Amino acid sequence: MADPTRPAVLAGGLVYPESPRWDRGSLLVSDVHAFRLVRVRPDGTWRTVREVPGRPAGLGRLPDGRLLLATALDRTLLAGPEDGPMSVHADLSGLTTGLLNDMIVDPGGGAWVGDTGHALGAPERPGRLLRVEADGTARVACEDLVFPNGLALTPDGRTLYVAETFARRITRFDVAPDGALSGRAVHAVLDGIPDGLCLDGLGRLWVALPELFRCDTVTPAGDVETAFGTGDWRPIAVCSGGPGRRTLFCTLARLPEDGTRSGRVAALPLEPGGAGTPDRRRRTHMRIAWISGASSGIGAACLEAAPAEIGTIVGVARRAPASPRAAHLAADLARPRAWQDVAADVDARLAAADVEHAYFLHLAGGTAPSAPP
């Protein structure tokens, strides 16, 4: 029987997996030293999404659904479809002295990204956090950080945590509505160097400690506890995902000093689930806008979240509790429609996007249903 307190291997064959993000039903990972972005599916299979010559680092999504990708060596943020042409969202080369590292994107599209200050093995210099707005304008948010690494933002968006790797600490900031940082404080001092981190529903940080071959948790009060060991694999980064975000994913690596260079992804149960950003699961709620009479296009659908979050949708998602309106839509579905052929694909898309409690209708033509009583 598997030990629920130890991560089980989900996928192997990677090189150095970093910056995992639960994204649209699977795990998006920067395989740093393979210079590629990969998707790891829940069944453990994976595919290369794109090659990244500038070396991939932090990942996120803009409000319009475009992927935001930090490139460590080019020191730019790229935006666009993950498997299509991407353009420069922000050139940060003039603000950095090291490499771009982890990144976090808030719900409004503003991003914080770490500048390490120096490359590994180079003379040490202070790093900094950069703030990039949704329109691509950038500024220095904080200076004098010691190799800023993993980032996590609380669900209310008011507290940002930063792993200062070579200072062996987690630093906490208050976040203003405009993204400005203040109230800098040491949140926790650790036994080893921290890399990636994420938040759970209890407000605890889960922190990867690659030197110690283990992950620790840090409570909201700053108390540190050992969570689990990772054997002879070094934990690199963590994030929550899966249904209810009740799975903790941990990327693992072996380095040349370990006798080889290889990477894998492991997973273990996480209760009561993840919280905050990164890997913030967007729970998309839909409001039915009933339109009587004929409609040559959209019959009824008003999204309260960006449609790009789940792609182009045609059909009906059967993911709502029973209600009169749900019953009305179900009855309408029973009538032949040309667009019904894509309903199964819509369900698959929504399942992959981890959308819950959504019920909407998009007519490809014909007569819109009248409002139920």
Quick gist of this model?
The protein has 373 residues and is mainly beta.
What does this structure look like?
It is a single chain. The chain has 373 residues and is mainly β. The protein has 2 domains: 8-275, 6 Propeller (Neuraminidase), CATH 2.120.10; 286-362, no CATH class. The protein is built from 2 helices and 29 strands. It has helices at residues 324-333, 343-352, and strands at residues 8-14, 17-23, 26-31, 36-40, 46-51, 56-61, 67-71, 76-80, 87-91, 100-105, 111-115, 127-132, 138-145, 148-153, 159-164, 169-175, 181-189, 197-200, 205-209, 214-218, 224-229, 234-241, 247-254, 262-269, 274-275, 286-287, 302-303, 315-316, 361-362. The chain has a 5-stranded antiparallel β-sheet, with no helix packed on it. Strand 3 and strand 4 (36-40) form a beta hairpin. The radius of gyration is 22 Å and the shape is globular. The model is unreliable at 279-373 (pLDDT under 50).
What are the SSEs and their pairings?
Layout: E1 8-14, E2 17-23, E3 26-31, E4 36-40, E5 46-51, E6 56-61, E7 67-71, E8 76-80, E9 87-91, E10 100-105, E11 111-115, E12 127-132, E13 138-145, E14 148-153, E15 159-164, E16 169-175, E17 181-189, E18 197-200, E19 205-209, E20 214-218, E21 224-229, E22 234-241, E23 247-254, E24 262-269, E25 274-275, E26 286-287, E27 302-303, E28 315-316, H1 324-333, H2 343-352, E29 361-362
Antiparallel strand pairs: 1-24, 2-3, 3-4, 4-5, 6-7, 7-8, 8-9, 10-11, 11-12, 12-13, 14-15, 15-16, 16-17, 18-19, 18-25, 19-20, 20-21, 22-23, 23-24, 26-27, 28-29
